[in-house]
Amino acid sequence: MATILVVEDEFGITEVLQSALTDAGHNVVIAINGKQGLERLKEKGPDLVIMDFMMPVLDGPGMLRAMSDNPEYRHIPAILMSSLPESAVAEAASGMYAGFLRKPFVLRTAIEMVNRVLNGGRPPLDEPMRSPC
Amino acid sequence: MEMDQTDRFPKRVPSGVPGLDAVLRGGFLKAGIFIIQGSPGAGKTILANQICFHHAAGGGRALYVTLLAESHSRMLLHIGQLRFFDPDMIPSRIFLVGAFRVLEEDGLRGLLDLLRREVQSHEASILVLDGLVSVEETAGSPREYKKFIHELQAQAALADCTIFLLTGTPSSRIAVEHTMVDGVMQLQSELYGRRAERHFEVYKMRGTGYLRGQHSFRITDEGLVVYPRTEALLRLPTTHQPASGAPVETGLAMLDRMTGGGFPSHSTALLTGPPGIGKTTLGLHFLSQCDQDCPGLHFGFYETPEAISAKANALGLPLKDLIEQGQVEILWQPTTEGILDEACHRLLDAVRRRGVRRLFIDGLEGFERLTTDRERLGHIFAAFRNELSALGVTTVYTSEADLIGSVSRLPLSHLPLQGVSCIAEIILVMRYVELRAHLHRVLAVLKVRDSLIDPAFHRFTIRGTGITIDEDASGAEQILAEAAQQNHLRGPEVLRTGRARQN
């Protein structure tokens, strides 16, 4: 079982992800923007972060940069979600995420990606990924 | 509200929606707050996105905030199919934010703070809040809701940001929030029989004139296209009428003589007659006089451009060459699923685009089939006459008359000509006269403005070279006299067409 932080501003997606990941045996923590996401990181120390690209207050790339700048968090892998194609978000978040989910996605794809990243699938480019618990 | 210091008029934000800025007299007031309401599927989200993308294409920035509305991915999936959508604009110039959770957790104050911060951080000059009903539901009282709108209005002014609030149709025409905002507009769909037509209506717009009433719109691959009410758009001609010139040749020398030298320049002629009498053929003669300096347009509801071209060829008229040389254009406007103001817009656009001088419209009934409100037609045709005249166009309309009027003693009977004076300065009548086994054709000029006309019936024929009109009235007189004698012996008789008169 891993602790997963879901950072998403859109109502609905967070709830469904939370239920599905809980059913898959994970402990899920949620935040509604990048700023709140950073607070949850400190409180919960998650094994994986799933975050939206566009969010109010602090967006996905902003949160990724803050994680990357902090030695405590830079090892935590992140999956980026967006309604935009990966090519549109890659530059802003370059080298800071381990997986990309294009919305709308089906739950099976999301769960598979979560498992793959937790099992050491695509690691972050600048830092080796920590093994799941 | 920001004023233009040079002319003291508030600055505008163009919508980029074809036709809408004409309704709004230039666009939305800059830094104003507007409610766009309508039932689900009415097109609110498309309209708001179209405004955002147009604004972004011009270098502006827009923030699209959703509450309990369509998810961003679903919304992008849908608007991604429309031509105004440019993926490069997101997130560089258009930013999407979900705020329902903030509303749930932090209430109206939290939402206001979020909107203010996001507008500021993204330097957005347009803000869309999609799902205003959630705000109303969260507000504990109408007073709290009005306070929210009031504060948002203050934000709009201080941030120089134009705000659009999207919501459903309220149960009453006037809702509490309507009193607080700068403008209210509604999108709706109405059924006419089994056919549905979309309407756009501005209920309120502070500080500016606008075209009142319901305007038709379509949702096309280009996004929304609004067709302002033609009679409102052309309330006054858009240009000054040019000085009258020499009369315009009709294309038939004999008809020129009958009309006292041709049609007065920039005039409108109404050509009425039963089916098959030769109205379209006369129109083709009229258009065959077109040249480079005098472009023509055939705007018809019934025959395709190919059929028109073939007909002209069969009559030996040079229309095909004129079409190929670009001197005549043929536009076909089927009456299936059409919208009256869309057809009017298409017609006027084609006239202006090519500087048309000779216009043949075949015929008035096509507009009648498209309309959901026949009362409008008289106003529209009167507006057409004024506008076309101002544009220097000489126009010929056809109007179909019933065969029932073909009683040989009374060739002008049953003509539905009441009220046409306001739409036509010239009236031509074509009739059949039944004489034994033959149907003869006769033509008369009833009226030509400020001209000495030959008011007699003339017989005419249609053969390989088109229409040939008798030099004088003797042929028609002989036929009508014989027909009168025949009818005197047999009593009144009418041709039965099986077609009911439409009243």
Short description:
The complex is a heterodimer of chains A (133) and B (503). Chain A is an alpha/beta fold and 133 residues long.
Report how far the terminal alpha carbons of chain A are from each other.
Answer: 7 Å
Extract low-pLDDT stretches of chain A.
123-133
Largest interface (C-beta under 8 Å): A-B, 20 and 26 residues
Q: How much of the residues of chain A is beta strand, in percent?
A: 15-25%
The geometry of chain A reads as: globular
What does this 3D model show about the protein?
The complex is a heterodimer of chains A (133) and B (503). The C terminus of chain A is likely disordered. Chain A is globular and about 30 Å long. The longest helix of chain A is centred in the last third of the chain and has 12 residues. Chain A has five helices and five strands, in the order E-H-E-H-E-H-E-H-E-H. Chain A has a five-stranded parallel beta sheet, with helices on both faces. In chain A, helix 2 runs parallel beside helix 3. In chain A, strand 1, helix 1 and strand 2 form a beta-alpha-beta unit. Chain A is an alpha/beta fold and 133 residues long. By secondary structure, chain B is α/β, with parallel strands linked by helices. In chain B, 33% of the residues lie in helices and 24% in strands. Chain B contains 15 helices and 20 strands. Chain B has a nine-stranded mixed beta sheet, sandwiched between helices. Chain B starts with 11 loop residues before the first strand and ends in a 13-residue tail after the last helix. The C terminus of chain B is likely disordered. Chains A and B meet through loops of A and helix 3, strand 5 and helix 4 of B.
